[in-house]
Amino acid sequence: MNTVMLYQKFTAIIISIITFFTGTLFPAKADTQVVNENGSLVTVDSLGRAVVSAGKSEKQVGIFYFMVLGEDGGNGPYNVTEIVANNPNAVLSEENWLAAGGCSVWNNAHWGEPLFGYYYAKDPWVLRKHCQMLTDAKFDFIVFDTTNSLIFEDGIENLISVWYEYMEDGRDVPKLAFYTNYLSGDTMNRIYDAFYNNAELKVKYPKLDELWFRIDDKKDAKPMIIGDTEDTALREDVRNAFYIKTNQWPYEKKKKNAFPWMEFDRLLTLDCIYRDKATGKKIMSVSAAQHNDTGNFSEAAWYGGDDHTRSWHDGARDTSENAVLYGYNLQEQWDYANALDPDIVFVTGWNEWVAMRCEPSEEQGPIVFVDNCDTECSRDCEPSAGILGDNYYMELVSNVQKFKGSTTTLPKSENVTIDIDGSFSQWQNSKITSVYRDYTNDTVDRDFRGYGELYYTDNSGRNDIANMKVCQDKDNLYFYVDTVNTLSDSNGGAWMTLFLNLNGTESGYDFCINRNAPENGKTTVETISEDGKYSKCGEAEIRFEGNKLMIKVSKADLGLSQNTSAEFSFKWADNYIDGDIMSFYTKGDAAPYGRLNYAFG
């Protein structure tokens, strides 16, 4: 029996043991909560996987968040995946690497291109998108990587400004914490002075204390920070201000009261749960890939290393075509975490786009990268401009929900008929309970530099979608939307379009309303084929004035039976790129954000 078969057999035995004691690999935790707005967000991703966002839960999920982008000098950008794809011999020598456009030693390179371009982490436009994505995915906290002693004051203050704005708007934004390692005591001192005990920040953000993550939910609990409590440089006032968890590296012996950011031996040991001494909560880490064999992802990419890449599962790297798209390693990690049922899962990670090129060596090869290298040998889950798209983000949303075991729904609506020629005040009817609210102030312009000579601008934000409602009667569906300011000219193109998904397929949407400029109170209803082509199937009635718009569409035009309660998901979008679902992340305004949709019924 070969090593892979032994590994698979061992894994199966372990999972069987866990299943025996827990009753099932995925304990049934169906908990659907009724809420006043939005409900769970839903979609089907590009791989055909159903995705639902979580509801409230006592379980918590955090994610490693990296602020280094732009703080490393901003040279390049050097896209390792592209460099090697264009010149496979680049990795054979220093000379070849530099000739192919690679970076020199001690410079950072990107494993791939982010969906938002080669951005600086302090770019407020990008931070706003991150806040929406992580909030919609129901993350409870993020942990800044300050393990190399840099604390990124400007970038984190920019992030605080965005997070605070949405917290004030009633959004359940992820709370904030820090992970320290090198010069841990000194780093914790500077973090405390810069953020937690900063008089100017406290004046600017009076409720700033509410943004800090606390592992304990007691009222007087201290903010959590991760570091070395034995470091003699740690000031006593800082020690007393925090609840300090011990930093834990995956190759170190298990420490007391530790907080792990990665496990190297996930399926080879059950010793991957860390119990918090104050609360008794069980903590586990989950990651998209692990450099566990050689310690350098470049060896796994090019020189025969057997590290656990994105496509690793069942004891081996999956070499089938497009395996990297599916997040097999990440899913296996989530499955194992669900089997052990901890209280907190910490994910590595988000926006870890760059790694420093290290000194070459005979053992490691001429081109050395440690924490990430290329598309296969990297571990962050932020949407990519490359082949990964938003697959890993969708996988996160889905698995957070599975782990928390909860969803939300809106109160069941009674049938209501809307007179499309009547007043917009009809929508104040208390019988209309399908109510949705979008993030506002997310149509701000982008104006920030990126890596190298790149500079990013975007002024596609136009109509800032705020509130939406949906109702039905036996013959029709009715949709309402309003915006922060007066609606723009309806002839502006890609104007206030309504997308519907009735069949749940990965094609995205099967109906589109108001893709073309409305005329004389009418607008088009179109079907969308699997190959993205539009065909007119009817007309809807439309009315808009000021900042309000409503639509009446016949159920028959959507292939729905009369006298039956319709169920579907939908999205409003303005100034998107037609045919490009990823533009719901990057252009205009989409409600909800990105690929996710609101559910009705």
- Helix proportion of residues, in percent? 10-25%
Count of domain modules: 2
Radius of gyration: 25 Å
The CATH topology of the largest domain is given as TIM Barrel
Number of strands: 31
Q: Under the CATH scheme, which architecture of the largest domain would be assigned? A: Alpha-Beta Barrel
Contiguous uncertain segments of 5+ residues = 1-13, 15-28
**How would you state the average pLDDT, rounded?**
93
Beta strand %: 25-35%
The count of helical stretches stands at 12
Question: Strand count, sense and closure of the main sheet?
Answer: 13 strands, antiparallel
- What separation lies between the terminal Cα atoms? 52 Å
What would you call the structural class?
alpha+beta
Shape: globular
Instruction: Give the class-level CATH name of the largest domain.
Output: Alpha Beta
